[in-house]
Amino acid sequence: MSTRIAFLFMIATWSLLPESAVADTDEWLVPQKQAQCLVDNLQLYRSSTSDPVVIFVGACPIVDPGEAIKSLQTNTALPSVREAQENLAIDEVIVYTLKELSCLSIDVIDTSGPIVSLPKVPCD
């Protein structure tokens, strides 16, 4: 699959997410293992040539969206919203601008629990 087709598919997937998963909260909710990967590879995401940076949480630390989709297709399936503990919708695709990534501080992200909250707008 070409990167362009993968990108278009990613946009289509994003548009199919329930509105509640996209807009209802001020936080992204991700599993602890993937949150730790994001924290460990934050500089890699900050050096992305794309703006905004679309992060497929399950494909961390792959920065390129097309490669991330390919990785997920090989290993499991395309991202979807699934229910986690306490009926929380887990975000499998998160989006930050490069400016927001520069504001995202690893010092304030608590990765100790099974579900980790990441601010959607860290520059506020």
Which characteristics define this entry?
124 residues, alpha+beta, two-stranded antiparallel sheet, two-stranded antiparallel ribbon, 6 helices, 18% strand
Notes on the structure:
The protein is α+β, with helices and mostly antiparallel strands and 124 residues long. The protein is built from 6 helices and 6 strands, in the order ααβααβαβββαβ. Residues 15-23 have low confidence and may be disordered.
Q: What is the element layout, followed by pairings?
A:
Elements: H1 3-16, H2 19-23, E1 27-31, H3 32-40, H4 42-46, E2 53-56, H5 65-75, E3 82-83, E4 89-90, E5 93-96, H6 98-103, E6 115-119
Antiparallel strand pairs: 1-6, 2-5, 3-4
Helix pairs in contact: 1-5
Condensed summary:
The chain is an alpha+beta fold and 124 residues long. It contains 6 helices and 6 strands. It is globular.
Average pLDDT figure: 80
pLDDT under 50 segments (min length 5)?
15-23
Rg computed from alpha carbons, rounded to a whole number of angstroms:
14 Å
Instruction: Choose one word for the global shape.
Output: globular
Number of strands: 6
Strand % is 15-25%
Helix content: 40-55%
Largest sheet report: 2 strands, antiparallel
Succession of helices and strands? HHEHHEHEEEHE
- Distinct helical segment count: 6
* Structural class based on helices, strands and sheet pairing: alpha+beta
Question: Quaternary status of these chains?
Answer: single chain
Distance between the termini: 38 Å
Spatial sequence of strands, sheet with the most strands: 1-6
